[in-house]
Amino acid sequence: MISLPRDFAPSVDLYELTMVDAYLREGLTEPSVFSLFVRRLPQGRNFLVACGLEDALEALQNLSFPGESISYLSSLNLFSDSLLDWLRAFRFQGDVFAIPEGTCVFPDEPLLEVVAPLPQAQLVETLVMNQLHVPTVAASKAARMVLAAGARRLWDFGLRRTHGIDAGLKVARAAYLAGFDSTSNVLAGQRYGIPVVGTMAHSYVLAHGDELSAFRAFVRAFPTATLLVDTYDTLGGVRNVIRLAKELDKDFKVKGVRLDSGDLVVLAAKARQLLDSAGLTRVEIFASSGIDEKEILRFAEVQAPIAGFGVGASLAVSHDAPNLDMAYKLVAYAGQGRMKLSPEKENLPMQKQVFRVSRGSRTERDILASHEERLEGKPLLVQFLSAGRRLSPAVTLEGVRERVRSELAQLPEEIRSLDTPSRPFHVELSPKLAALRQRLASELSGRPLPSGDHT
Hints:
The protein has 455 residues and is an alpha/beta fold. α3 (67-75) runs antiparallel to α4 (81-88). Among the domains are: 14-138 and 321-345 and 380-425, nicotinate phosphoribosyltransferase; 199-287, TIM Barrel. It has helices at residues 14-26, 53-62, 67-75, 81-88, 118-123, 125-149, 165-178, 186-192, 202-206, 211-221, 234-248, 264-277, 293-301, 313-316, 397-410, 413-416, 431-445, and strands spanning 31-38, 48-49, 95-98, 104-105, 112-117, 153-156, 182-183, 226-228, 256-259, 284-287, 308-311, 326-333, 336-337, 352-359, 362-370, 378-379, 382-386, 389-390, 427-429. The protein is built from 17 helices and 19 strands. The strands form 4 sheets. Strands 13-12-1-5-3-17-18 form a 7-stranded antiparallel β-sheet. The chain has a 6-stranded parallel β-sheet with strand order 7-6-11-10-9-8.
């Protein structure tokens, strides 16, 4: 079993090192606040599921620059000796406030905020973005599939399609947290304790003289297998499963059949009819082959007799929304607010808090506020690191799964839908934060920002 390295050095972009070198030369080392957020939702997304925080915290706590990294950086002939000395001694000593994994989030809400001396907070920019981006993309995609599937099971089959082994681990974990039942990824099973599942490939059938012989051999080794039935002819494959059941009689323990091609709605109905007529009502039908949440919803709407789905590429790379407009921006330095005014890339100044307001069992709206405010609703940002040290142990995967389940259940119905709602989820600024934003923008540009609701 392979084990991926957990060495995060030097997991930075070059410009972070050049800026840190310049900061140190200028003495710009006062406390700063950086905020990591998503500017806007991808098309087709009504919400995101925050994910990847545990990896980000681990990365921050383990970030260091060993001798070989320092030697490499020195060989570039770009950096001052003072920067290299600073990197040799580097350990992250900042504070981290974040929205817990499994929480549904919306544009401009900080997924994470780093409070640290300016050089430290700048250095970790790429690292924390990298650790949160893919998991949040994957968890958000997986959550849509979970909502579409209802009680049907979902299997992650995406490892062979992900952009690298590490991405495969992150996707498997994110999908499980979002509500998937299991993964084919054995390393994810070992590392995270996720249930592992698998069926068989067409190559196993092709390696034998005929399909029935292949089924006989596989079931001798794995009596409770799920058999892939579409190598030659799907319904012919189902009939071979029925023949095998008659041969084995009481020793027949096959759990299911998998359909991987053709019109899955029609084939599932005909396969169910054949199995039920043979008395094999307990043999379940699973489907795979390019399935995404819209296909899953379609199967549910026509009540196709499919017990679960194996999902590969559409989850592995989130093909309809593979990236987020995620940013990590300086919002305060030496106690003073900072903000960009770039068109469509403005950010909110100062350290923040998000208050989630609910009515009954439904989430109603969020209020983006300054960190020190105390408003109605539940505060979402929690401190996880203080001076680089963890304040509380990690929540179990099952605990995060339960959080996701609760969060999805509380979303407004139109936000839970796979369709784009007539109005996005309501996120407003507190009067204090709105006034600060307006004042700072006026000071920087000499003109007030356009008025209007922040949603």
